[in-house]
Every structure is written in C-alpha cells, then in structure tokens.
Specification:
Elements: H1 6-11, E1 32-37, H2 43-56, E2 69-74, H3 79-92, H4 112-118, E3 149-153, H5 162-178, E4 184-189, H6 202-219, E5 221-228, H7 253-257, E6 260-266, E7 275-283, E8 293-297, E9 304-309
Parallel strand pairs: 1-5, 1-6, 2-3, 2-4, 4-5
Antiparallel strand pairs: 6-7, 7-8, 8-9
Helix pairs in contact: 5-6
Length: about 325
C-alpha cells in the first residue's frame, strides 16, 4: 500500500461504495452501528424494520437510505418462529408507497445469467454504486419479494471463534455471488448469542470484533449489531438513572469499536409498553445533532409509527459534539 500526498488522497475513491446507507452519518459504507436496549424494547423488530428499509430504499424514520444488499443473520429464534414473524411484518410493510419502476439493477457489464439468478432487471439502469440515491424499490407490486434482502438463521455460530468467522464468511460469499459488486449491510442479532466467551470480558469481545473487522475489510461491509443493555437502574426515590452509552451490556470496548449507537428505551420500563424512545448516544460521523424520537409499535401488524422527535432532555445542541460527547 503506497503512501499518498494531499492531491492523491483527494483523487482516491473508495471501492464499491455509493451514498450513505443511512443518511446524516448514521451508517456509511464500511462503518458499524449498534442498536441496544433492555428486553421487550422491540430490538429484533427494529432490526427487521431497518433491514427492510435499507433493502427497499425507504426512509428509516425520516432518514433517507440507499438501497443495498442486506443480510439479517439471527441466532435467537427457531427458523419457523422467525419466518412467521418476517412474513407478518412483510404483509404490512408499506411497499405500496414505492413507484413501480425498479431501480436496483446489476451493473450493465455483468452477464444476463447473473441478473437472472438474482431476480433483477438488466435494462441498463445504474446501480447504487453510481452514487445515485435509490428513489424506489425493486418491489414493483404490494408486498413483492425483495431479492436483495437475505436471511440466515444459525443458533450455533459463535463469531469469536474461527469456525464462526468462516460460517459468516461463507454467507457473505453467497451474497456476493448473487449480487456481484454490490455493497452489503449485515445485521447480527443478538450479540450475546453470537459469542462463546463472556460479553463482559474485553478479551472475548475483542476476538469477536477483530473477526468482524477482518470480514469487514475483506468484503467492504457495513455492520449493524443488536445488543442488550444493563438492567434498568433506579434511585432510592424510584427514578430511572440515565447512563447513556454506559448502559450497553458487557465490555466498554463496544463504545470504542462502533461509529453509531442507538439506544432503545421503553417509555414505561416497569410494564408492557409499545412506545419506544430512540436516542443517539454516539454519532462519530454525524455533522449535526441527531435528536431522539419516539416510535409506537403495533402488535397487530408489527409496524412502527413515528410519534414525534424531541430535543435531548439533558443536553442542548451547543453542548453535543459529533462524537456524542459533551464539550464541557
């Protein structure tokens, strides 16, 4: 690898990358994002919704997305249960808001055989690699299948082991064989079931994240981790203690590794509640403050509804940096 001067650096372009996967620096190609929250905070449904949004090019709670290949790798549910949940979500996902003209196509230089195997059109339209924002989806009819949204259920894969890294690498090679030259976003759910070691031990966590870094560099991935938080902490008066990123369960190395952290917080932590607050506890690549927002989930349709966006309760825009840290 040759060193570069300022002019050479300016001319350099990253390979196989288009626009931000999620706008405002939330998820850029090659970066990592972590969604975390307590049990019953709709984390798995949030990951499913996020995957559908990125795969279809639909906005994610007001933030634009660039349509790309998405692999959801889940280790929590039996495949039959997971399938039932996905099918129910898909039945109500708002693909009818999209135009009928597909924009997700293989590069025109690829063979028609590759396009046929992927289920995509080769009419000459550009892919996301051209840097164009996808304005519609490959879904041309209500609830039509998204061939670029892929799934793997594996209850035995441990990503802090060589075997687990090889299993995930095999899945990524399958993605690339179906969609050559396309950027891949992988969603891993949940972290604690994808480790053989202890999530509280930095050595074990670093083994997993080092393996993910190796795969990220090899395949030019964007990575989204789904993780748990500590149990809710309260004062002697019964008030919930807000500790931000420190609520992430396990080693603090997660904070050093990821670029964006989104905390899911139940509005009623002591009972069943479909209203979840999303707050950005870390945004390394954002150029403005990203405000928290509330979402209400429907148990009947498994669909989220954005309620409202609100300013942070403890910080003003002047007190927050792009790294999520106070300037004071």
């Amino acid at each position: 690898m040759a060193i570069e001067n300022l002019s050479e650096l300016e001319r350099w372009q990253p390979p196989n990358r288009g626009n931000s996967i999620i706008s405002d620096g939330i998820l850029d190609p090659g970066t990592a994002m972590l969604l975390f929250g307590p049990p019953k905070s709709w984390k798995s449904m949030a990951s499913l919704n996020l995957g559908f949004c990125i795969a279809s090019g639909l906005p994610w709670f007001g933030y634009s997305t660039t349509q790309s290949v998405v692999l959801i790798f889940q280790a929590e549910l039996p495949k039959a249960v997971f399938k039932k949940r996905v099918m129910k979500f898909r039945a109500h996902f708002p693909t009818t808001k999209l135009t009928t003209e597909p924009v997700l196509t293989l590069p025109t230089t690829e063979s028609s055989g590759l396009a046929a195997s992927s289920g995509l059109d080769t009419s000459g339209k550009s892919s996301i690699l051209s840097g164009l924002v996808a304005s519609s989806s490959i879904a041309s009819a209500p609830n039509s299948a998204l061939p670029n949204l892929l799934f793997e259920t594996n209850n035995y894969c441990k990503l802090d082991t060589t075997y687990g890294k090889d299993v995930l690498n095999s899945c990524l090679l399958q993605c690339k064989s179906r969609f050559p030259n396309w950027h891949i976003t992988i969603i891993l759910d949940p972290v604690y079931l994808l480790m053989s070691g202890k999530v509280s031990e930095e050595y074990d966590v670093r083994r997993m994240l080092d393996n993910l870094n190796e795969l990220r560099n090899r395949h030019d991935l964007s990575i989204i981790l789904i993780h748990h938080s500590h149990k809710t902490r309260v004062t002697t008066e019964g008030e919930v203690i807000d500790t931000g990123s420190d609520e992430i369960f396990g080693s603090g190395y997660f904070n050093f590794w990821c670029d964006t952290e989104v905390r899911l917080k139940r509005m009623n932590p002591f009972g069943l509640d479909n209203r979840i607050e999303h707050s950005f506890t870390l945004t390394r690549n954002a150029e403005r403050v990203l405000m928290p927002f509330e979402v209400e989930w429907s148990r009947a349709t498994l669909q989220p509804t954005l309620i409202f966006t609100k300013p942070p309760a403890t910080q003003s825009e002047d007190d927050v940096t792009s790294r999520g840290l106070s300037t004071q």
